[in-house]
Amino acid sequence: MEKLIITGGGPLQGEVTIAGAKNAALPAIAACLLSAEPVTLTNIPGVRDIDTALQLLSLMGCEVERDANTLQVTASTLTSVRAPYELVRTMRGSILLLGPLLARFGEADVSLPGGCAIGSRPVNEHITGLERMGAEIDIEAGYIKAKATRLKGAHIVFDVPSVTATENLMMAATLADGTTVIDNAAMEPEITDLALMLSSMGARITGAGTNSITIEGVVSLHGAQHQIPPDRIETGTFLVAAAATRGDITLRNSNAAHLQYVIAKLEDVGSDISSGPDWIRLNSRGLRPQPVNITTAPYPAFPTDMQAQFVTLNALADGSSTVVETIFENRFMHIAELQRMGAHIELQGHTAAIQGTERLQAAPVMATDLRASASLVIAALAADGDTTIDRVYHLDRGYDNIDAKLADLGASTRRVSG
Ligand code: EPU
């Protein structure tokens, strides 16, 4: 198993290019199943979750061609509609295959994802929504077995605004008979992007990006070309790393409009932030971060995917703060690791009470999930000495070429196996 060793202490300085968004690319890849014609996706990130998604599509009999960051998928005929547990358990986003498979092929056999390090993560909204559209769904031996001759338009109201359930049902509804309305829909930018892609394939969708989305079903969708937008969480992670190390960095291929809440918090931390249409610069002016209180909530509020990184930043801040996690019940696994590096954090239920310390100390630590690993990388970059991060495969699920990007910003990192 690979470990990442980071020698900390210096400021991040320089420029890097942000990759395409993992969480926009995953639904886009699933959406390729909705057409018999080739679909081309550009700006695909080089991350492990994308490899897993493409492995699933290949297993199902799709033609998949990948050349650097460009991908072409042709789903003219399928040989299987099964997403097996062995792959689904490594990537919960596999649930996104359920809606498109059912809508186009009338059948799907997708493993239940099960729990994961950040919580139990149920999929009831996906299943209930598809049932409302006329699907027959049985859970058998850990698999969601779904059937429908043709899905029917329906009015769906979510109890919680789930991101992937909104995407799944939006995709399913594009080929349904009649009109579907999704209320209390999630409003994340990845949903707006998926609607854009589906519309370029001939789907009829209005309201994506608001909490009420209307989809008028059509008989078939055609091929298209679509560019994946920049990854807002990778962008935010680098911005926090620059603030934590008192650095000055510029991120190319990034979109400040998708990160307004995070940027406002970084300004409260004391950083100067400037941006153009496709770049963002954070200049910490060499100052120690000020503490900021955070409460995670669905978009456009503060993203749960940036919570762990801000816990690290607050652990280095000049004062005390609280970080409240409202989306996932168990997304604080990084805290025990940060404590091993000298962070003063007390966990009370869903709230982390943090007393900043000027320096963290290097220590061997363990990554538990994707964003927790990012928070440990940031801590290691700011700490005195060599930090070894074990189970670094979590990081590679969602961060494209992170070692090279950190090196471009002046950080010293190396990988070892064992
Ligand atoms: N929920 C339900 N029932 C459902 C679905 C969700 O109760 O059927 C609850 C969840 O338990 C959670 C809340 O709704 O409390 C929101 O979860 P959501 O379904 O929105 O999460 P997701 O769609 O599984 C996506 C991202 C996550 C990100 C969350 C929240 C993808 C592939 N994944 O997950 O990304 O944390 O939205 O923004 O888009 C990551 O990239 O590290 C990551 C975990």
Notes on the protein architecture:
With 418 residues, this protein is of the alpha/beta class. 31% of the residues lie in helices and 26% in strands. It is built from 14 helices and 24 strands. The chain has helices spanning 22-31, 48-59, 85-88, 98-105, 124-132, 163-174, 189-200, 232-244, 260-269, 307-315, 333-340, 370-382, 393-396, 402-408; strands spanning 2-7, 13-17, 39-42, 63-67, 70-74, 82-83, 107-111, 136-140, 143-147, 155-157, 179-183, 204-206, 212-216, 224-227, 248-252, 272-276, 279-283, 294-295, 320-324, 344-348, 351-355, 364-366, 386-390, 412-417. The strands form six sheets. Strands 22-23-1-24 form a four-stranded mixed beta sheet, covered by helices on one side. Strands 2-15-17-16 form a four-stranded mixed beta sheet, with helices on one face. Strand 18, helix 10 (307-315) and strand 19 (320-324) form a beta-alpha-beta unit. Helix 4 (98-105) packs parallel to helix 6 (163-174). The protein starts with a strand and ends with a strand. The relative contact order is 0.16. The mean pLDDT is 96. Uridine-diphosphate-2(N-acetylglucosaminyl) butyric acid is lined by residues 23, 26, 92-93, 121-126, 160, 162-165, 186, 303-305, 327-328, 370-371, 398.
